[in-house]
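Quick start: what a row looks like.
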Amino acid sequence: MLPQPEIAPILNIYKDEVTTELHNILNYWMQYTPDYENGGYYGKIDHQNTVHIYAPKGCVMHARILWSFSAAYNYEAKGSYLLHAKRAFNYILNHFIDPLCGGVYWTVAYNGEPLDTKKQVYANAFVIYAMAEYYRASANNVAKETAIELYRLLIAKSYDSELTGYFEAFTREWKPIGDLRLSVKDANEKKTMNTHLHVLEAYANLYRIWPDRELKVQITNLLYNFLDHIINLKTGHLGLFFNELWDLKSDTISYGHDIEAAWLLLEAAEVIEDKVLASQLKLVGIKMADAALEGMDEDFGLWYEYEPSQKHLIRQKHWWVQSEAMVGFFNAWQITGDTRYADISVNNWNFVKEHILDKKSGEWVWGIYADNALMPGQDKVGIWKCPYHNSRACIEIIKRIS
């Protein structure tokens, strides 16, 4: 554990390194990913930096690009960042917003034509999140109005007015749909931790630009959804999948989501200035951080998932899990003053530098196996591989050290 007087120079180095890395990440996305022929950003680039021109383009990816460049501009007002935020903003407006039924499509084809038109609440939440951040960067009222419109649509179409929470997905016309899943690995259940976490994140960012009374109520309800249903307060782990009655339908542990939620829940309570909830979520956040530590390897890389019923550890270390570990354990140090947590955050970053940064081709690799071998066949850029987790980790660490 680092003695308190010795931590300042280490944190200054940490800040300098992640500042450089933030620039590296965004420079990669500016150099390699814009699709100047068909608009927006390429739907897929592999680890060899080969562009897959005809790959579908994801709404979540474009929303995360919009958020990343907007947030970077809000930290450091570089004109190039605002230009790329505007590019992503225009593409979302012109190609992902459904002009007939409202909400956003899941994917469009490479040329911008609607492809998968289902209404995934998760994707709508990310557009709210990104539009709010872009408004902070640009003062563009269309961005603010779009975010508010999508928020009101989610309340009207997805909110469970009886038991609270949000149903997972719908058809294009906002009718019930058989396959609710975000991805093939997910359980086909009506309520999920992942969607609720990112609806909360989106609403909190919207509240920063639009402190509406009813929005505050929705944020408060979401925080109690986590406290009452999603977090196992005995173990500190999150439940992942639930039916409409909030019955838990999976025992899988996601270490990355545990540590991500540990800081995002507290942030939301602080945004709405609820001191009682913030105080409670500080205690719960430390419980969750300690639970996530169960997945920390000796090299300070955080494992992906654990399946208790099978006693099976998924021995993979994904880029996004490490990003959230950097922030989540730093947050635990800020709450407790225990430098052990700061030490973990710094050493997790050292793991990222050694194994996750692609020093040859740029950006971060998807992940590695237990033997440090690269996970093959994964995206460098794709529907799920975006600059959001790693750029956000850099921005958060910079701000918190500052």
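That is the whole record. The chain has one domain: 4-401. The longest helix spans residues 7-32.
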